[in-house]
């Protein structure tokens, strides 16, 4: 190839000869003329590399794609590369930098191997019923793909070592409303080539998707919105169709053959009247106003979050205080309020408790000096108060601590509510209105809406996809048909938004990523994953064994959402935390059980005490063949007659189709379905019929339970067998949670854990030890506590409290000797640590840290250890003793709490 004075002249050159004596090139052109050029003005290149045209998509700077390429030869010069391209009917030379080139990422060994695996595994994917009669088979799609552009987000998924694109975005709009998590999720989506939004139930996932779409539309981008089910994408269309927005004319619902035919038929060739959408105000001025409002709203969002957390804390502390009162009543530790200084804080009360507890632990009596100090420091001048048993005095202080803590929480709530009133204004309303105005103005400006609109044929979807996309920048499809909506061989979407990605398999999800340059993956790892049958799983495992690829791509073990999170390190991700659907007591179960308390409950308690109910049927084996008539009778005769809501706001969820069919026959006026059919829906009242005589692993599935519970907006009623159930499991946790929240008396040998009281006690105890210069004791306890926390950190349903007295744990003393009872009731007798279930507050296993010399056989402490061992054994609480010089502690602890 010859370049003379910067111009490619190869096609016109007959010969090009270097003249060493003059350090110049003599170029003879095909017209017979010869010209000398100094060596610096000529680039002469030989020995090109032959490239496979199948591995490139080539576009010129004026937007023209190059087709019918037979061969490509690449020449390398000192500063640039050049391509000699042989077409079917002609030849042309190009400077490579003048071309827009998409490379085939499958030429990369890692990407190619992973794609080959996905191609093979795609034959195992089951398509939804709506595609049964169509030639839409994933494996055929994969077999027809030999080129995956390195500009698609699929390229990044196949080889996460590729550097993802990151952008800075300003002037975001939120026409569908917003909160802090949604704001972060929208920004994340627009600034990153791929991002994840985890959307737990009732957190505004669709609202977030609509805000992302709005920002893409205003930037004149195209977006493909896909989901594994039609209801999710219909929800997007319905929201855009509302009178307030009127943006459904931007949407093309495609995907299946039937949807495409309906779209073609429903075109009317006209635009809606957009005259009212035109804004006289400069769009940049509106965007500036939106930016300023967004900044102000950050403070409002912070106050709202703090208020929600405080209200949740208040409910939990008040509930625990009621359980404490019940404990005090049962144990005869009834306390009379004692007059104290009016402004005495909960911290001061805790400090006095610490002082008394220390005296108890050291077997010291209360001296006159201590009593005098109490008068001056705490205002307790009642001498009779000090004549009580010290355990009762501590009970008085504990009760006072609860009450004072509640007052302090109430004061904080009052202050933050005042701050909210002072700062709220109508910023949220302004943000939505101004964002919508800005969006509509941009749309009005984009479309020549007074003219007739193009009407597309079915062939146009394949032959003119870019024109369709310009008219309809929002394309809706099921995930399975992502590549089939438009001809993506010729055009790529700017974005694909994949909803319900936790229910999408790897092959289907990857296919959707092949259509777009950027992706937003939306789902919830705590809700229903994609279902893989055992026979399919077995074949999938055999296929996986043939490929040397990371576990993140294992079809049998991952949903697409999980795969993306595992495959791409540090993928930008946002959890939508603010929950707006369920009664606080209902969603708090899911929050504690499945989301580690990360959700912020924004709904208000109606204080009616009806949100939760558990009904146990009479003992007996009423369930047969996944059908339980006794539970149906309870629903018909005991539950439905008491409900004061319309039938269309009642839903019955059950794990088995047999029970669904029976209920449909007997109660046809009520909506009933399995959990899988209820995902994405909600009702004021949900009745959960568990069916089983003994809860099995299928019914106890955490994903099923999370979805079932979070369908209920106002009331959740669980119907369960009266047979004795295993004291472990998700259903057991739910029933125990309901009983704890409703203060129901249960036949139990133990009390629920007073976690607020003793978590606060722990902090104050360590502060007390540091203040008293007992540094060695402080560090020893702190180290052990953090050691145990670290052991259970991967099991979020558990937590740990320290130093809780045995008398506040053991409820039933009937199996104990008098000596054991006396030891138990000693206020100095406590467990070092108690691991407990955070959801139902039930103790799981006690842990004692034993120093060898102090606890060895023959010592007084060893005798006490034996007493404690037997007391806990009789009470059904496991006890694990860890030696300070022991090993294998993690395995021992996990085994003790039932995790092998």
Topology, element by element:
Blueprint: E1 2-4, E2 7-8, E3 13-19, E4 24-29, E5 34-38, E6 42-44, E7 49-51, E8 56-60, E9 69-76, E10 81-87, E11 91-95, E12 99-103, H1 109-121, H2 138-143, H3 153-158, H4 180-191, E13 194-198, H5 205-218, E14 223-227, H6 230-241, E15 251-253, H7 257-266, H8 283-331, H9 346-361, H10 368-378, H11 390-424, H12 427-446, H13 458-463, H14 465-471, E16 474-478, E17 493-498, H15 506-513, E18 516-523, H16 534-544, H17 560-567, E19 573-575, E20 578-579, H18 584-594, E21 600-601, E22 612-616, E23 623-624, E24 627-628, H19 629-639, E25 650-653, H20 657-666, E26 671-673, H21 675-678, E27 683-689, H22 702-709, E28 712-720, H23 730-741, H24 755-771, H25 775-791, E29 798-802, H26 818-825, E30 833-837, E31 843-850, H27 852-855, H28 860-874, E32 878-883, H29 889-896
Parallel strand pairs: 13-18, 13-19, 14-16, 14-17, 15-16, 17-18, 20-21, 22-28, 25-26, 25-27, 27-28, 31-32
Antiparallel strand pairs: 1-2, 1-6, 3-4, 4-5, 7-9, 8-12, 9-10, 10-11, 23-24, 29-30, 30-31
Helix pairs in contact: 4-5, 5-12, 8-11, 8-12, 9-11, 9-24, 24-25, 26-28
Structure description:
The mean pLDDT is 89. The chain is 41% helix and 17% strand. It has 900 residues and is α/β, with parallel strands linked by helices. The chain is elongated and about 125 Å long. Strands 15-16-14-17-18-13-19 form a seven-stranded parallel β-sheet, with helices on both faces. Strands 22-28-27-25-26 form a five-stranded parallel β-sheet. It folds into five domains: 2-103, no CATH class; 112-270 and 452-575, P-loop containing nucleotide triphosphate hydrolases (Rossmann fold); 291-427, no CATH class; 581-741, 3-Layer(aba) Sandwich (Rossmann fold), CATH 3.40.50.300; 757-896, no CATH class. The chain contains 29 helices and 32 strands.
């Amino acid at each position: 190839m010859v370049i003379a004075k910067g111009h490619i002249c190869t096609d016109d050159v007959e010969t090009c000869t270097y003249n060493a004596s003059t350090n110049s090139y003599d170029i003879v052109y095909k017209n017979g003329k010869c010209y000398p050029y100094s060596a610096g003005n000529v680039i002469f290149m030989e020995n090109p590399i032959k490239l496979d045209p199948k591995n490139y998509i080539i576009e010129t700077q004026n937007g023209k794609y190059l087709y019918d390429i037979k061969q490509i030869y690449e020449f390398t010069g000192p500063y640039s590369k050049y391509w000699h391209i042989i077409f079917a009917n002609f030849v042309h030379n190009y400077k490579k930098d003048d071309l827009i080139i998409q490379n085939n990422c499958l030429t990369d060994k890692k990407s190619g191997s992973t794609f080959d695996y996905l191609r093979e595994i795609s034959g195992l994917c089951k398509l939804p019923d709506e595609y049964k009669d169509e030639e839409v088979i994933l494996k055929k799609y994969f077999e027809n793909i030999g080129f995956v552009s390195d500009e698609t987000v699929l390229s990044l998924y196949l080889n996460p070592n590729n550097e993802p694109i990151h952008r800075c975005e300003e002037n975001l709009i939120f026409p569908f409303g917003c909160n802090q998590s949604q704001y972060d999720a929208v920004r994340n989506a627009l600034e990153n080539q791929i991002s994840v939004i985890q959307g737990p139930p009732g957190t505004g996932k669709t609202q977030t998707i609509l805000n992302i779409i709005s920002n893409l539309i205003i930037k004149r981008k195209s977006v493909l919105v896909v989901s594994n089910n039609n209801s999710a994408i219909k929800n997007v269309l319905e929201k855009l169709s509302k009178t307030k927005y009127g943006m459904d004319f931007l949407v093309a619902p495609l995907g299946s053959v039937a949807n495409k035919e309906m779209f073609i038929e429903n075109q009317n060739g006209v635009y809606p009247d957009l005259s009212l959408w035109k804004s006289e105000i400069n769009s940049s001025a509106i965007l500036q106003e939106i930016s300023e409002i967004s900044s102000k709203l950050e403070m409002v969002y912070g106050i709202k979050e703090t208020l929600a957390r405080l209200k949740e804390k208040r409910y939990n502390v008040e509930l625990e205080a009621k359980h404490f009162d019940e404990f005090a009543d049962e144990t005869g530790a009834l306390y009379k309020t004692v007059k104290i200084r009016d402004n005495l804080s909960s911290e001061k009360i805790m400090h006095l408790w610490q002082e008394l507890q220390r005296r108890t632990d050291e077997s010291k009596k209360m001296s006159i000096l201590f009593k005098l100090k109490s008068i001056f420091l705490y205002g307790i001048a009642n001498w009779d108060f000090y004549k009580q048993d010290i355990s009762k005095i501590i009970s008085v202080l504990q009760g006072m601590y609860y009450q004072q803590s509640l007052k302090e929480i109430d004061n904080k709530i009052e202050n933050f509510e005042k701050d909210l009133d002072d700062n709220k204004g109508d910023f949220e309303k302004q943000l939505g209105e101004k964002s919508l105005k800005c969006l509509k103005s941009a749309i009005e400006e984009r479309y020549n809406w007074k003219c007739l609109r193009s009407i597309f044929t079915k062939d146009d979807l394949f032959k003119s996809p870019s024109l369709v996309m310009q008219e309809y920048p929002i394309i809706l499809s099921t995930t399975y048909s992502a590549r089939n909506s438009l001809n993506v061989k010729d055009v790529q979407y700017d974005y694909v938004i994949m909803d319900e990605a936790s229910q999408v398999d790897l092959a289907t999800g990857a296919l959707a990523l092949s259509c777009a340059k950027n992706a937003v993956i939306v789902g919830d790892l705590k809700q229903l994953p994609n279902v893989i049958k055992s026979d399919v799983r077995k074949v999938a495992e055999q296929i996986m064994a043939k490929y040397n690829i990371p576990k993140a791509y294992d079809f049998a073990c991952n949903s697409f959402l999980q795969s993306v999170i595992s495959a791409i390190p540090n993928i930008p991700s946002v959890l939508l935390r603010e929950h707006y659907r369920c009664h606080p007591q209902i969603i708090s179960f899911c929050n504690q059980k499945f989301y580690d308390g990360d959700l912020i409950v924004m709904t208000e308690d109606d204080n009616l005490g009806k949100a939760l109910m558990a009904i146990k049927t009479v003992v007996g084996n009423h369930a047969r063949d996944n059908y339980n008539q006794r539970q149906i009778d309870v629903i018909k005769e005991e539950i439905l007659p008491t409900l004061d809501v319309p039938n269309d706001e009642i839903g019955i969820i059950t794990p088995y189709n047999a029970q669904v069919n029976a209920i449909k026959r007997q109660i046809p006026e009520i909506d009933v379905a399995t959990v899988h059919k209820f995902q994405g829906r909600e009702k004021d009242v949900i009745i959960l019929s568990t069916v089983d005589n003994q809860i099995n692993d299928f019914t106890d599935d955490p994903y099923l339970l999370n979805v079932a519970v979070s369908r209920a907006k106002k009331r959740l009623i669980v119907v369960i067998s009266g047979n004795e159930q295993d004291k472990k499991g998700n259903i057991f946790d739910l029933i125990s949670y309901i009983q704890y929240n409703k203060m129901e008396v249960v036949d139990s040998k133990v009390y629920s854990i007073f976690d607020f009281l003793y978590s606060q006690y722990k902090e104050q105890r360590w502060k007390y030890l540091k203040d008293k210069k007992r540094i060695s004791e402080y560090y020893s306890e702190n180290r052990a506590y953090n050691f145990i926390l670290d052991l259970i950190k991967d099991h979020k349903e558990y937590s740990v409290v320290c130093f809780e007295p045995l008398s506040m744990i053991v409820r039933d003393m009937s199996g104990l000797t008098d000596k054991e009872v006396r030891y138990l009731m000693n206020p100095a007798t406590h467990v070092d640590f108690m691991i407990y279930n955070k959801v139902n507050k039930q103790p799981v296993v006690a842990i004692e840290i034993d120093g060898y010399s102090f606890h060895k056989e023959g010592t007084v402490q060893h005798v006490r250890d034996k007493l404690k061992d037997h007391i806990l054994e009789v009470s059904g609480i496991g006890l694990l003793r860890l030696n300070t010089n022991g090993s294998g502690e993690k395995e021992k602890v996990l085994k003790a709490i039932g995790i092998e």
